[in-house]
Records
---
Amino acid sequence: MPEPEENILTLGIESSCDETAAAVLRGGRVLLSNIISTQIPVHRKYGGVVPEIASRRHIVNVIPVIEEALQQADIELNDIKQIAVTYGPGLVGALLVGISAAKALAFALDVPLIGVNHLEGHIFANFLSHTELVPPFMALVVSGGHTALIHVKDYNHFTLMGQTRDDAAGEAFDKVARVMALPYPGGPEIDRLAAKGDENAIDFPQALREKRNYEFSFSGLKSAVLNYLNEMKMKRVTVNPANVAASFQKAVIEVLTQKALEALSEAKLDKLVLAGGVAANSALEQRLREAAETHGFHFYYPNKVLCTDNAAMIACRGYYQSRIGMFSDLRLNAVPGLSLMDVKA
């Protein structure tokens, strides 16, 4: 007799960038373990992720991380009924490590394999933080590689409202932090520094602000910050780094908020979900929370540990894919450029 869906154990594996992660999920929302091995200290001295180093570290970490996830969940490997793994987007070498481990385990255990879009996983992290959350809702995905608005119609049907034309918001944070000589990763450093500054000190540009345009562009903003810093240096004017960080951060957050509110209105939805690594930004969270109170919609965002890359969100997304038979075969390969255009419409 098949096991009830609410008791199915899913092993999630994530290795798209510089975190090696594994998690065990019971059903769709009961998280039994969530193990993350970060490489931030390794890459910090280079000012960013070095793909070859990341891949080699994943090879070393992936099996111990999986073993720790099983141990924390207090289960045996044979208890796992399906395996979900990130197959894109991400660094190709890093992705291949997780995929290889997942395929080997799926073959050895004779259980289904589920290839998961990393970006969809970020959205599904919210289901683990808010067990009452159900579609439909609008998702604002803000990460190092992507910025997008997605209408989540149900667990397996999405419509892309718009995405970034160039730099993602998180990428802009990291690049601005780098030119300001802040440590890697730059996003949290900008957030901390901005709390001490005046967000109205410098008028940085906000691109694509016209109505009903749900695309984003942060390349010009990044260049404007760089030009400002160079101009002040040439004029030998002392710059207040906190003011630069606060003004830059405000320009990003205002665009994100405005477009999210307009997308909510157009889709006639009353729930906004924030997802991705930049969801951990305290100023963005506060601005959207204030907007929710003002405009009367419900606002959701993941626990901090589920904002950045993790395998719990991959296991969750994989579970809901499995409910409609969205499995992969053992020919599953890495798709480093997998985009939000590949979601089901």
---
Amino acid sequence: MSAGKLSINRACAVGAAFLGVISAATIGAAVLLTKNPAVVWLGLLFVALVFVCAAAFVAFLRWKLVLFSDGLCRTIDDMLDGTATPPQIYEEESLFYKINHRLARLYEVLRENRESIAKERADLQELISDISHQVKTPISNLKMVNATLLEQPMPEEKKREFLQASSGQLEKLDFLMQAMIKTSRLETGVISLERKMQPIYDTLAAALGGILLNAERKNIHVSVDCPEDIILAHDRKWTSEALFNILDNAVKYTPADGNIQVYVQSWELYVKIDIMDSGKGIAENRQGMIFKRFYREEEVHDIEGIGIGLYLAREIITMQGGYIKVTSTVGHGSTFSVFLPRE
């Protein structure tokens, strides 16, 4: 019989039989050597006491094991259901404590995994809902334009207008998909940011290059105060993307002939980048919502955009150990302060 298949009851029976054989052999040897019947009775009494003590010990151990196994099964079932935590055992040198300690670690892992899965599921549902909401309008417009072109005869000039409108909706869908791809890659870790010690001046210049044409069209004056010798650890490509998104929002929501000012200051632990505009401003009760994915205020739906730029900017800055602060007054513009750690 293999040790792996030997049950506790059989092990006890084998042990008792072995102990009986040893005892009988010992008593028999004592009788042969001493020729004294009293030795036999003393030997039998001793064997009986040994068997009683062994039986009591085995019964007690079995009772403790049964209680522990029942409690362990109940605890594991509760842990799997997420309804209870492992009981605390403070006998630090006991085997039960070691098992309980590992159960507690197992419970924490299961709880974190359950919470992570729930959060991912909620995020996925929110993302699907947001995407569905965002693509609904351009797809409806494209269907309407396509149906009109197919069903109604019209002059070439009118066709060109419809095709231009269709092109605008396609560009909006393409922009949405590209923004979602960037966001998903950052969130899932497909793209990792590589922070290197390099001048912030060049990074800011790359961001400004993307908004100067639109600013010029609206006759918005852009002024920049950034020392060229400020060096900090950052990912140039993605930091430029974040700053561009903030600057692009400033251009969109600043009226014609307005002003945008950019100030860069070097502090002991952080580099602060202030982007100030003379736009419409943001109400205080909405300042915490503007970084949500796809969030847009009701009164700006006529302005081009999908509401993902600030969300993406915050993700990029946060992943580099920084943060963004907003101060704004309705009717007097907004200031977005980007704080990036120097090292």
---
Amino acid sequence: MTVIPWWHPDILRAKQPFLADRRRITAATRRFFTAIGFEEVETPTLQVSPGMEVHLQAFATELRGPHPDDRAVRYLQTSPEFAMKKLLAGGLPRIFQLARAYRNGERSATHQPEFTMLEWYRAGAGYRDLIDDCIGLVRAAAGVAGRSRFQFAGHSCDPFADWEILPVAEAFHRHTGIDVLATAPDPAAPDLDLLAVEGARIGIPAHPGDRWEDLFFRIALERIEPHLGIGRPTVLIDYPLSLAALARPKPEDPRLAERFELYCCAVELANAFGELTDPQAQRSRFEFDMNLKQQIYGERFPIDEDFLAALTFGLPACAGIALGFDRLVMLCAGADTLDQVLWAPVAGSPYRG
């Protein structure tokens, strides 16, 4: 197989239509948020904590000051979430950011170790309000790219059709026949054995060392996600509480968290939360996740105490969302991989033709 460097004139020439769409979609994104009263912000890429997700790997570096002992480990952010929520605590009501984000160990047609994350937050809003934002944004992006349908990996999706709002429990029942909430009678400690029986029935057995969450995501990846966002976008909503991450419990059903993910052409585009504002509950979740990360990977990330201080000071009731901007551009531009919509890939990711 011939390896052609990404900067070769033939490669750059072939990418120009995709990059032109990227410019148009970037401008349309800023117009969209400005028109509905959002302020664009910029926060540092270097953070005390890169994010507290158990399975994400981060890039670390050393911050050096003017004195020999003025050194500290800093991380390239996996998301600008903590810094943006501090701005909410400081009184900014509606903010968005096109931020650089970094996740180690990720590289595929739809993953890059460095990528652009679009995040926005609404004070005084609920997580369902973000669905309307997503509809408006995705349609605006598709419109400026001149695309009435997305085509990717053999799938088709019409962003201008009525979007599907699909509860997680219904998705499991529809595509696997599993009553997933029945396997989680205690939201804080779902029963792996119950889910393992159901997983084995459909040919996805539990692995040694699996937790309930591990088996949940493997079933979702193999049997549910391939059906999401086919024909029209799908909003997969209301996750079991043990998968809340930084989301708050749903008042109407304590088994669930105010969380949704957006899919088009079976590609995950966004992850949204009705944000947890309780600092003690947030600290407990962080400590649990980092203990688990230590157990699985032999490492842990520091807790951003300044973030918890912002929650203690008073994070308003709010909702927030992270959207993979490169993936949105890829779908809108009709590209086959993320590389095609990037001006330059991370070193070590050559175009192969």
